[in-house]
Amino acid sequence: MDIFLLLVTTTIIVQQILSEFQLKTEELKEVMRRMQHEMNRGLRLETHEEASVKMLPTYVCSTPEGSEVGDFLALDLGGTNFRVMLVKVGGDEERSFKVETKHQMYSIPEDAMTGTAEMLFDYIAECMSDFLDKHHIKHKKLPLGFTFSFPVRHEDLDKGILLNWTKGFKASGAEGNNVVGLLRDAIKRRGDFEMHVVAMVNDTVATMISCYYEDRSCEVGMIVGTGCNACYMEEMRTVELVEGEEGRMCVNTEWGAFGDKGELEDFRLEYDRVVDEASINPGQQLYEKLISGKYMGELVRLVLMKLVNENLLFNGEASELLKTRGSFETRFVSQVESDSGDRKQIYNILSSLGLLPSELDCDIVQLVCENISTRSAHMCGAGLAGIINQMREQRRQDTLKITVGVDGSVYKLHP
Ligand SMILES: *[C@@H]1O[C@H](CO)[C@@H](O)[C@H](O)[C@H]1NC(C)=O
Ligand SMILES: *[C@@H]1O[C@H](CO)[C@@H](O)[C@H](O)[C@H]1NC(C)=O
Ligand SMILES: *[C@@H]1O[C@H](CO)[C@@H](O)[C@H](O)[C@H]1NC(C)=O
């Protein structure tokens, strides 16, 4: 076949394969509607149990503006690194501000992660003690906020039961117990400093509150990183799991599990099914698996393998590495898409995977990355539109101006 014709046919077939990832506005609106429907099922007492989107109350409530000022200690535990921070909050009638004055990172040793809950929390208290010593504030009894990014069922702002460890943590005797209680006990066991543990929140909630200090219309928090989750301020009367009618409470949607009851079946592609089946939790967190960084690179790799098998890429031959699950890292997706146009970055990544790409190969790989990350962003945007519609309807407003606080590695690193 003539080389020009070959290029044209290749491009047309690649486009056909990628068209599955391009969602029409009508389809995205459908995702938005289904998300809102499932959110309402999660909020209502009689449907909560069976709803895929759990809508967990956080006990973080709307408060009078600018009421909290002074020095605070903040802890952040959500992975193998643990952070201690000293935060100053100040302000006046008009606005408040926060300044992170000091912070330190500690890494959690393997034996603390996998030993007993006492060992883990003793280690955390030891790090706090070290931090307070270094900054000469051990004599102060500071109020403390704890960002704890594991699944928790809250019973109050300062009381939450750890449901499951995730992310490689195993410390025994913690699951089923109040995390704030475990922390307070560890501080008591040391006896060399005192702390007033005021609140424990999730990373989504921490993101929302943190952004709220700078922008009073921030009432949604979203994480797009290894995982994907969002929270927002819901009317108390709608949060049926908690008594009370007045004001608003922040609800952690746990929307990553959207789709687990079949709501996304008409949107999930063959690649999504392979990713799910090979994961540690098949059938769970299906919406998250379309979006988050833990899966994005692998989705790209599966599409590349499909193109190789159809003889559309790399002369129909994959390297051993490309055939290996997990070899196409999510950070490669960002790197491929930020290539300056000379294909150098793309070429280097593909070479590191043992491939010898042509210019057309590089361009196709870039299209694959763009289509998959764009679908991720659109899916995420559709869910967010569901949340914002819900807020607008519950507030009985025709329009709503709202700010969304966003964090997470994919959001921060993807161009
Ligand atoms: C998806 O891929 C097609 C080629 O199949 C390309 O024309 C299009 O720009 C890509 N879309 C996005 C959003 O990257
Ligand atoms: C909190 O965050 C973690 C990690 O982001 C998540 O797995 C967990 O389900 C979240 N929700 C709650 C209510 O703890
Ligand atoms: C969490 O714990 C529940 C019951 O305690 C169990 O059914 C579920 O599979 C666990 N989930 C994970 C992700 O480990």
UniProtKB/TrEMBL annotation:
Residues 1-19 form the signal peptide. Keywords: Allosteric enzyme, ATP-binding, Cytoplasm, Glycolysis, Kinase, Mitochondrion, Nucleotide-binding, Nucleus, Signal, Transferase. GO terms for cellular component: cytosol; mitochondrion; nucleus. GO terms for biological process: glucose metabolic process; glycolytic process; intracellular glucose homeostasis; positive regulation of insulin secretion. SUPFAM superfamilies: Actin-like ATPase domain (SSF53067). Pathway: Carbohydrate metabolism; hexose metabolism; Carbohydrate degradation; glycolysis; D-glyceraldehyde 3-phosphate and glycerone phosphate from D-glucose: step 1/4. Residues 14-213 form the Hexokinase N-terminal domain. Residues 220-415 form the Hexokinase C-terminal domain. InterPro entries: ATPase_NBD, Hexokinase, Hexokinase_BS, Hexokinase_C, Hexokinase_N. Belongs to the hexokinase family. This is Phosphotransferase. It comes from Nothobranchius furzeri (Turquoise killifish).
